[in-house]
Amino acid sequence: MxxxxxxxxxxxxxxxxxxxxxxxxxxxxxxxxxxTVRFTDGHGDAPRIAxxxxxxxxxxxxxxxxxxxxxxxxxxxxxxxxxxxxxxxMGTTNDCAATLGLGHGMAAAAGTAAEGVPLDLDVxxxxxxxxxxxxxxxxxxTEVSYETPQDQKNALGKFAYFLDGVSRITxxxxxxxxxxxxxxxxxxxxxxGAVTNARSVAGVIRLKEDVGVSLSDGVFEVILIRTPESxxxxxxxxxxxxxxxxxxxYVTLLRSKTVRFxxxxxxxxxxxxxxxxxxxxxxxxxxxxxxxxxxxGQA
Length: 299
What we know:
Blueprint: E1 2-8, H1 21-30, E2 33-39, H2 45-53, E3 59-64, H3 66-76, E4 84-89, H4 95-100, H5 106-115, E5 117-126, E6 130-132, E7 135-139, H6 144-147, H7 150-156, H8 158-168, E8 175-181, E9 184-196, E10 200-201, E11 205-206, E12 220-226, H9 231-242, E13 251-256, E14 258-271, E15 274-295
Parallel strand pairs: 1-2, 1-3, 3-4
Antiparallel strand pairs: 5-6, 5-15, 7-9, 7-14, 8-9, 8-14, 9-12, 10-11, 12-13, 14-15
């Protein structure tokens, strides 16, 4: 019999794991797994448990939001070989689930985690000692995800991010940065920068299929938004983003395996929606095919 570790964040998504947990366990049993259930008690538990117990399991399935998935992947990146990974999304925005095409609800996602198709997923390494699954970002609104209280996220969902984001729009700060990427260098003032391996970021930035995003190609999509000179220009930027236009005067989309950011002073970053610390220099490196995650088909 194969062994599966079900790693649950009980605080994510209003504690929604209760609904469908029995069905999920039955799906794992029918797929030939002996399942052990563990709960996280706080930040840092998921990577610790994943790293310490990876060798004992054939598959680890995490239940929670994008942050829980990111933490679980971070733990797996500390060990080799790595067990296969499953993800049951229970968070607020679930960008990773949208990118991976995972179903909603405990039972449906558990079916994919138990019997899906393995995808070799790229993982981002951040300054050599941290990891992210879908986004590392700085600038406008990036602090909202980890500063918004969990009870507000659970009660209001994505609207909690919107409310907090609107309250900050008059205080947008811009950062001068030198951005070195494969084949070029940019120097400018930016209000936002993101290194992504996803088709959806915060439920707002969406990269359509014709952009050519692949989760396994060994390169990031790098989104940079230059500082607008007026409210009208800020409105034009928002319009461009909502229209998936990433080649305008203020919005740029690049592709690169490695990208380096240099700032005059320390800048706060978020990794998969969690606090990534403040840094004057950041290097993001794409580690191709780092983990195998279960999906419904080719993501």
